[in-house]
Structures are given as structure tokens and as C-alpha cells.
């Protein structure tokens, strides 16, 4: 059967049909227009729906964002109030410095000034109270406020009195700011956020106490027009008209902000209410224009064009291809480019484009961007555009020799200034003559941002001090300079660690801790010399690099810093804190010292200061104690690495029943696999772990590993009865330990009765009340508690009466001498009798002879462990095949 293509069939139908070709084309055109109309209507419906969702989202965003500057002002005032509670003797310089250190004013749009007014009786009328501004920052532009009486402004006075009585941030009614009284009514309108200041001491809690201790008032002035406009800048003001009214103000004075525009009732209106500082604001938003139907228009145009083109295509099949050829010729001519269009394109480019003669270098053409930035430069030498003309001549020479591409250079502005640009200069031919084409892009903002990022990378955001990385770089420079000049005077490195700083964060929050750090930095800077380098090395750790000092001068400087920290009395929300610091000093007075050595010695000296009782200065000495501390620091670092790399090992030793059989019980023992694969006993690294606070992390690792692999610890598998784990004193003092143990038991499905936690007697009696709370909670869940090394303490039997434990493990020093020391036998017998009387199991450690084992049987000890009964073995799941 002969096959016929669709095109052939269509052409045949057109030729044989009685309907003329134009009718087929018209029918196709009408069908296309109908489909296009349906698509356009659907798109308009979608546009309206999307627009309404966007309007609601923008209204919600505006409501939230309008609170932000008021809340930021309230936080700033609360921080300054806290400063006054700890130091109510303030001067203008200190007030400005504290305000600058807080860095919160930068985040408050519309911020005009932050001020403080003392409360005083009016000399003319003693029954009246005045509040003249005493401190104002920034002073520039706010000079008129110094001495200005707040009580003269009713709106301000009402906010001040409400804030004083409630001790909450209060917002005034809108009023005309004194500083802008000549700027027009709209520009001068503003509000103040106020908070009282009380005399030094704890935060007052009653109304009578607040009024009695009122010292004055803090205020943050905000211009309403820039505050609202900057806060809502972006999509809100781009797409919406906004009207903000103060609902508590008279109707004629209630308008806070308005963008104008058509009457709100003519559009879709979103209304939100916001309450802050005792005032209610209403936010009304309506769209600047109707829903965007541009896409519907495009669909209409595209559908119409497609329909017309389809109809024309059908018409062309029925007639001739001549029209298509003619249309192609017209389109080709329409889109042909010319020299005039090329120049027009250059005029519109944001980059600076200039053309200069190849020989003399005189400029023959400059586009609009170049003329606006550089002035009328046509006819001027190209080299003079550069801030440094010799650099311009070198660039021209390089362009002739092969190109000068993407180089950064300073170009001269028309007003005499300069800006940084990325410049490309190349040789081209125009009208068969050599020319130089220069293209420059302004990168001043990019360079400024790069400098800002470089500064942020080297400084601490909170305090503005050098960070650890920058401090180490400066120490390295000082070491290199000292090594290069043997005759240079020595310098000192101080390591400052605040004592018990974590307590403030735990009790009052991190915001209080941050404010305290800012105050401490301010105090330390006053004691240090201008050439000294102060840096923040960590959360509560600081470093000082002091040049040109001997040991005595370094110690004196460190003592000054220590005393100034001790003198800071910090008050926050009713609490008052005193902070101390331990300071370690290393004097660099000989060559060959490395950065690593210096930091390690300073850290060691600081730890020695803490060991000596805290709140003191210690100078590093290269002696036996220092070597021991250095060794412990190295072991601490090796232990941290072993924890991160999974190189800790677990051994078990069986605890054998002495009276009858029973399921096996074990005690887990910790080992370390060093960098060379050798097994290190715990005596080598656990002292360092205890000194440097690593024991809670180690104990949690042991607990989690044991519970996660409980049925693969011992060859008996699920038949294992009890697993004992030793807990350090630092872990017992961790308030979250019990939660961690109980959560791990639940996660890995281990019965709590199968877990025995061993606590040494000396740890238990060191903090008896806290230990009892932890023990009782774990025992209530079903865990067993063993009192380890019993008998080593001075008051063992007295504490045994009150400690809630299930097992007593007799200290090995008594067990070892049991066969030949009557005193040891008597003590062990007494422990067994008292333990059995209290219903406890009694376990003996260090059993290494048959004689000792026989004596334990005679004394009716329940269980025993030692090398005679079982030597420690690696847990099953860590054994290699």
C-alpha cells in the first residue's frame, strides 16, 4: 500500500476541497485564539491568587520587622542599665565607651542618640522633678540635648514614669525631636524607648524600692521616618503602600509613617496590630499595583502570534513560499547591526570604556560611564587617568607589547579623589589605525569588603580584640625579630584564664557573660600599655604580648591586670558577680624558642596558678614540676587524638563469686593504643586526663561503648550478669551524667540491673550531697552502685552509714596484706560485717595468692578479683581475628 505523508495529505485536501484556502487558515486562527484566551484567563486567576498570598506574607513580615528596632533598642538599654547597677559613678567618656563596646546601636535603624538624664529637683519649684540630659552619644548633631529637661515633653515624661515604675522598656508617644525641629514636621517626628537607672546594688523588685532608688533614666531616640523605611526596605516597600498609626495617640496625630499612594480602600488591604513598650501600632498595607499579569500578556501575545503563524503557514502551503522568503529577508535586515548601534551599546555599558590613539595615547572616545566618573577626558593623555602617572605609562607600554589585562589600579576621579578599578588595556585597530582600548570596572566596594573580611578573620567579633590566629601570628613575628637581633630586650607572653566564668553563663545566660567580657576587656586595656597586644584566645581565655620587659616588670604588669579584673563588680538582673583570673607568664629572653613551646609553657604556668589557689600570677620555670606538667599536657593532647581516632581500648577482669556459683560478672579497664600501636596502661594518661578535664569525656565514651556492645564484652555473650564501670570525680559532678546513662541504657536496650557503676570512696565523700542525688536517681532506675577503694578514706565507716550503695569493694592495700597483717584482717572483717548488716555485697580486690584467697573465704567475703583468679583480657568485640 502506498504511504502518504501528512503534509502531502494536507496539500491534497486543500487542493481538492471546495472550501477556499483562506477559510482553512481563518478556522485555524480562530481555534488558536480560543485556546489562547482560555490560557490567558487561567494565568490571570493564578496571578491574582499568588499576589494575595504574597501580600499576606509581606504584611506578616512587616509586622515582625517593625518590632526589631524597638527590641534592639530595649536590649541596648537593658545592657546599659546593668552597667549602672555595677558602677553608678559614670562620666561622659565612660558612657560613650560602654555604648560603643556594646555595638548594638549600629543594628537599630533610625537611631539618633542614646542618652542618660539624672533625676534632680527643680531649683525653681522643689515639688517638681527635672530630668536634664547629662550624657549623650553620639554628641555630633545632638548637642542641643545636653541639659535639655525631659519633663518639658509630656510624651517623654509619661514614658519615663511608666518605665521607672514597671522596670520595663517603654515607648513614648510620637513627638517632635528637638534636634530636627527645623527639618519639617514629618522629618522631626520620633519616639523614645526608655528604661530607668537605679543606684548601685541588686535589681529592685518592688514599686517603692524602684522609686526610692531611682537615679535617672536612659533613652534611645528613634526617628520614625528612617526607622520604618529602613526596617521595611526591600520587598515590602517595593510592592506595598504602608501606613503605620499609633492607636494610643489622637487620630489627628496618630500617623507614624505613610508612603502615600491611592486610597487604601480601593485595593486589597492587609491590617496588622503590634504592641510594644506600652503602645499599640496599627500597620495597614495595600499593593502599589494590581497583580502582575505580564505573563498572561505574554501568553496572549505568544498564543496570538503562534495562531497567526500557524494560519500563515497553512496559507503558505496552499499558495506559495514567496511570502516566507520575503519575511526572512526582512527579519535579516531588521536585526543587522551597524556601527551606530555598537556605539549606543557602549554608551549603555556600566563599565568605563575609552579609546585612545596608539601613538600619542590621547583619548578619542569615552562612554557615558567614563565621562560621569572621570569627567571630560577626550583629548587628555591616557596615562593621566591613573592616580600614579608612571603606572599609567607602564600599562601603555605593556599593552603595546602584548596586553595589560585584569590589573588593579587607582584611577583619578573628576573631583580629585580616586577609586580602585580592575583595568584591561589592549591594542586594537580602528579604521586601519592602531588604537588603545581601555575597559575599567569599579572594584572599590569589593576591596573594602575584602579589607573588612580580613579584619573580621583576625579579630574577635564581641570584644574587637585580636583572635587566637592573629595573636599567634604576632607572637611568631616577635620570636623572629628576637632571633634576628640577639641584643633586643626580652618580651613576655601572658596567658589569662578567668576563674569560674562558666558559673555566670550557667546562672545568668550567655548574654550576661558576653557583657561581662566586654567590661573586663575595657578594664584590662586601661592597665596595659599602648604597645602591648591584648587578644581573646577562647571563651574566657585571653593573651597578652608585652614588649621590652624583664621578669619583674612583666610580673608587675600581670598583677595590675589581675587586680583590675578582681575589682570589676558585675551586676546582672539582680545578681552581683566578682570575677578573678589566673595568669601564667613566660619570659622570652633567649633564642631558640618556638611558638609551640611558648604557648605550652604559658598554658602550663596558668594551670600552675590555678593549682596554687587561683586568682594569682605564676611565672614559668624550667624545673621538674614544669617538666611533669609539660608531660601531662602532651598526654592530654595524645588522649584527645586517641578519642577522635578511636584508639581507646577496653579490657575486662572477671569478678569471681567465693560462695557458690553464678553468672559471670566483670569490671572494665581502660587502655590506650598509642601512635605506634603499643598498648599504654591507664597510669600513664589518666592523671593528665584528670588534670585537664578530660575524664567526663572518657567516662562517657566507656559507658556508651560498653552499653552499645554489651553482649559482646565477654565470651559468655548474653549470659553476662553484671558489668562494672569506674566513674571519675569530675563525671560525678556533671549534672547531665545521670541523664546520659539512662538515655544510653534505653537506646541500647540494656537492663539497668546489669550495669554497676563504681565510685571511689574519696570522690563520694568529697561532695557527699551531690553524689547521693546522682546515686539515688540511678539506683531508682535499677542500676547497681559500688563503693570502690573502701577503707582508704579517713572516715569510711561513718560515711558508709549514709551512702546508698549496693556493693563495697575493699581497698587492695588491706587485701594484699591480709595473710600476714592482723590489723588488715581485723579491718577487712569489720567491713564485711558492716556491709552484710546493710545488705551489701562485699568484693575484695588485688587477690594474688592462695593464702589471701583462703583468708577471704574465712571472712565470708562474697566475691573477689585479682591476677590469681583472672588476668585482664581484651573485650570480645575489639579482638582482631
TrEMBL record:
Q: Decide whether keyword Transmembrane helix is in the record.
A: yes
Q: Say if the entry is tagged with keyword Magnesium.
A: no
Residue limits of the GGDEF domain? Answer: 489-622
Residues passing through the membrane, by range: 22-40, 296-318
- MF term (GO), any: catalytic activity
Q: Name one GO biological process term.
A: signal transduction
Which NCBIfam families has this protein been placed in?
A: GGDEF, sensory_box
The protein in question is named: Bifunctional diguanylate cyclase/phosphodiesterase
Q: Which organism is it from?
A: Pseudoxanthomonas taiwanensis
